[in-house]
Amino acid sequence: MAACLFFANTALAQGDGDFIAALPDSLSPDQPAPFVRALPETPASLRGTLDSIRSSRVAPAEIWAARQWLNDMEPRLARYLPEPARRRELLGRIHHEARLAGLAPELVLAVIQVESAFKAEAVSSAGAVGLMQIMPFWIRELGLPADDLKDPRRNLRYGCTILAHYLAVESGDLTRALARYNGSLGKTWYPERVMRALARHWSPASSVPVRTTAER
Fold first, then answer.
1. Which one, of 52, 160, 53, lies nearest residue 106 by Cα?
2. Per-residue pLDDT at 51 exceeds 60
3. How many Å apart are CA 164 and CA 61, to the nearest integer?
4. More confidently predicted of 199 and 6
5. Residue 48: what pLDDT?
6. CB atoms within 10 A of CB 94
7. Which helix (H) or strand (E) holds 37?
8. Is residue 130 within 8 Å of residue 105, measured between CB atoms?
9. Per-residue pLDDT at 201
10. What is the full DSSP assignment across 8-20?
11. Mean pLDDT within 138-157
12. 36-38 and 5-7 strand pairing
């Protein structure tokens, strides 16, 4: 894939305060949603996945639902992030980035659990970095040379964008999209781990305590 996108810095500057409470302002119709700006050579599958979110509005009911979701997920994350303020900020970011990319935020939580156990500084033996274990070559494809993949805000933007792209490429087939995300297309072990984490720990119906280590 040719280098085709770079990230807007606007959303990433809004790092403080109640992120969910800020959603109506950051996604109002009078201000373009902070997302990615596509250059002409952007592949059609990626452009269609990402750009359709820009015109979306946030209704009051969605804001209420987002806060309810945060209250539900916060105690599940406590064993990974003991500081309440950090938990709430990260969950707000995850919900926001998942919504922008058209992903279920619970799915993003499951991916992070499997990939890094919520360790923002994690680096794998293959060189993947951060919460969603982004390979550095994606900086050439999606970002700017100065991008820090250990920054949770930046890492989430990359990870959600990449996963949304793979879902578009695979016509909504989550198993194949997750395998592509992991670099194991044709195998099912990684999608199975993510879906197991989702069902056990992050599904709204789940009441099983979250483990303190990533499932590998």
1. 160
2. no
3. 24
4. 199
5. 52
6. 28
7. strand 36-38
8. no
9. 95
10. -STGGG--SS-TT
11. 92
12. antiparallel
